[in-house]
Amino acid sequence: MPFDLAFIWAGLIAFAVLAYVVLDGFDLGVGILFPLLSTEQERDVAMNTVAPVWDGNETWLVLGGGGLFAVFPLAYSVVMPALYAPLIAMLIGLIFRGVAFEYRWRTKRAKRFWDFAFFGGSTVAALGQGIALGALVQGIEVENRAYAGGNWDWLTPFSLLTGAAVVVGYALLGATWLLMKTEGPINDHNRRLAWPLSVTTLGLIGAVSLWTPFIDMEYFNRWFSDWTMIFTFAVPLLVAGAAWLMFWGLKTRHDTYPFFAALAMFVLSYIGIGISFYPHIVPPNLTIWEAAAPDSSLKFVLVGASVLIPLILAYTAYAYWVFRGKIDPDEGYH
After folding, report:
1. Pick from 41, 70, 18: nearest CA to 303
2. In a domain, 200, yes or no
3. Is 334 domain-assigned?
4. Local confidence pLDDT in tens for the 334 residues of the chain
5. 2 within some domain
6. What pTM was estimated for this model as a whole?
7. Distance of CA 138 to CAs 77, 153, 155, 161, 229, Å?
8. What is the number of alpha carbons within 13 Å of residue 126 lying toward its C-beta?
C-alpha cells in the first residue's frame, strides 16, 4: 500500500479519534455513572477527578472533525448527511454536559437538575458516538460522489448494539478512573460497579466482533485471508489478556491496573475496526485516496499539524502529570 500524504493524514485523524475516545471516554463514563453514585459528596468527588482535564480532552474531537473536513472533504460531505441525527445528538449531549458541569457548582436548589443534565448529556453523547460508529461500519451508500441513502439508514440493530457497547464501555472507563483516583467509600463503590461493567463490556465487544464480518463479505475476506488473519486471532487474545489484568487488578486492589486494562480493550477494539476499514475511509466504496484533497492542500495543512499536534500532546501530558495521584476530597473544583 502506498505511504503518501493521504495515508499520513488518515493515520493522524485515526490517532486523533482514538485519543478522543480514550481520553474523553472516561469523563463521559463518570457522567454516565452519576445516578449510581450514592451521595452528593460522591458526585462532587467524581466530578472533581475530571475537572482539570475534561475540556482539554475534547480538543481531539475538534482536531479529528476539523481534520476530516480539511483533508478528506469528500468523506466529510458524505458522512455528515448520512449521520446527521446521531452526530447532532452527540453535540447536543456535549453542550448539556458542559453547561451542567459549570452550573451544578453555582446552585443548591437546582443541583439535582444539573446532575441529571450531566448524566443525560454524557449518555446521549456516548450513545450518539456509538450509533454513528455502527452506521459507518455497516456502510454508507454513495452514488456520484454524494450520499445516496435514506434519512434513517443509520438506525439499525447493529448500530444500536454498537451504541450500547460504547455507553457501557465508557461507564467501565469511568468506574476504573474513579477507582484509580479516589479512596474510601467511593473507591469501594466503583470497584463493585467495575465487575459487572467489565463483564458486560466484554460480552458486547464479543457480540460486535462476531457480527461485523457478516455485515459485508469484504469484511469477512479481510478478516480471514492473507496476513490479516494474524490480527484476527491476535486481537481477541490480547483483549483476553487485558480482561485478565482487569479482573486481577480488581481482585488484588491494584487501583491503576483496571483503568489501563480498560483502555487497552478500547485500543484493541479500535485496531480491529481499523483492520476492517482499511483502505476505505467511508466503507464500502470510498477509499482514503479517493476522498483526499489535492496534495498541495495536504502539504499545507500538514505544516500546521506538525506544530499543533505536538503542542496538544505536550499540554495534555503536562495536565495529567500535574493532577496525577489520588484526589483530596477536601479540595476540588469551585
Report:
1. 70
2. yes
3. no
4. 445 888 898 888 889 888 888 888 898 999 999 989 888 888 888 888 888 887 777 788 888 888 888 888 888 888 888 899 999 999 999 998 888 888 887 877 888 888 889 999 999 999 999 999 999 888 888 888 788 878 888 999 999 999 999 999 999 999 999 999 988 888 888 999 999 999 999 999 999 988 888 887 777 777 777 766 777 788 889 999 999 999 999 999 898 999 999 999 999 988 888 888 888 888 888 888 888 888 888 888 888 888 888 998 898 888 888 888 887 666 554 4
5. no
6. 0.91
7. 18, 10, 11, 12, 21
8. 31
- Residue 197's alpha-carbon distances to 202, 203, 206, 219, 329, in angstroms, are 9, 10, 14, 28, 25
Which domain does 179 fall in, by range?
8-322
CATH code of the domain in which 42 resides: 1.20.1630.10
Distances (CA, A) of 19 to 54, 120, 266, 309: 13, 23, 11, 11
Nine-digit cell string for 179: 477507582
CA 244 to chain centre: 22
Number of domains in the chain: 1
Report yes or no on 50 lying in a domain.
yes
Return the closest-CA partner of residue 95 out of 124, 127, 133. Answer: 124
